[in-house]
């Protein structure tokens, strides 16, 4: 069982216009949300500034949906002196730090599967973001095929190990309340097929135990583990009752202010 505050993330993905972001922020500000929940919303890069300006800063923190890291696979000793430079189209953790963007989502399954981010890349990104003082939501999760083959935990532990190997011994980088793990079974993302609360709790408990065995008891207690995958205002309360479900990462329903506010209040 974790000891941290409930934390709900809204992943807006590649959605939005100036008008719709304004409307969504207005709707979020109007929502009555309990004090005991941390809320992080992740607009596309181009709308982060607009969201920061529009949102009630006391209630809502913002996140980027990705951050670039440079590394050389051939030279594992190469560490991130700088991640700015000749990387056309990328946005770096240094830039997020410069703009005071406090959070970043890393390793989302859409980036892993559609854009080929592997475990090593995600581990390096997490370590580098921590190095720049960013809070991280790192996503892990199995495909339907992997679940049916009985490989769920094997897959998730490999994803976690890649993170642990990078952040373990690095200066300024650490586990704890600033690293949130989002368990997002790929078969449940955007499909309307939510994991049962028992399925989610089982994986969350296994992740927590993995942290005890591979990092520390203290970190295991301090780390918030979110569930993500077709969370909505109808299923959130049942999921939130489980002791190892410390919050949610919400895609589709985070674009609807009223639904998202209800999800934020689901642990109350
Ligand atoms: C997500 O992309 O993080 C997610 C959980 O999406 P959805 O809620 O739409 O399934």
Main features:
triose-phosphate isomerase, 8 strands, 8-stranded parallel β-barrel, 268 residues, triose-phosphate isomerase activity, gluconeogenesis, TIM Barrel, isomerase, glycolysis, alpha/beta
What's the gist of this structure?
Helices cover 40% and strands 15% of the residues.
Unreliable spans? none
User: What Rg do the Cα atoms give?
Assistant: 17 Å
CATH superfamily grouping? Aldolase class I
Share of residues in strands? 5-15%
Spatial ordering of strands, largest sheet: 1-2-3-4-5-6-7-8
Which fold name corresponds to the CATH topology? TIM Barrel
Broad structural category = alpha/beta
What number is the mean pLDDT?
92
Percent helix = 25-40%
* CATH class categorisation: Alpha Beta
Care to count the β-strands? 8
Number of helices: 11
Bound molecules: phosphoenolpyruvate
Principal-axis shape equals: globular
Corresponding CATH architecture: Alpha-Beta Barrel
What's the helix-strand series? EHEHEHEHHEHHEHHEHEH
Main sheet record:
8 strands, parallel, barrel
Straight-line N-to-C gap: 17 Å
Number of domains: 1
What does this structure look like?
This is triose-phosphate isomerase. GO terms for molecular function: triose-phosphate isomerase activity. Belongs to the triosephosphate isomerase family. It is an enzyme of class 5 (isomerase). It is a single chain. 40% of the residues lie in helices and 15% in strands. It is α/β, with parallel strands linked by helices and 268 residues long. The chain has one domain: Alpha-Beta Barrel (TIM Barrel), CATH 3.20.20. The protein has an 8-stranded parallel beta barrel, surrounded by 5 helices. α1 (18-30) links the parallel β1 and β2 (37-42). The longest helix is centred in the C-terminal third of the chain and has 18 residues, at 197-214. The mean pLDDT is 92. The site of phosphoenolpyruvate has 13 residues, from β8.
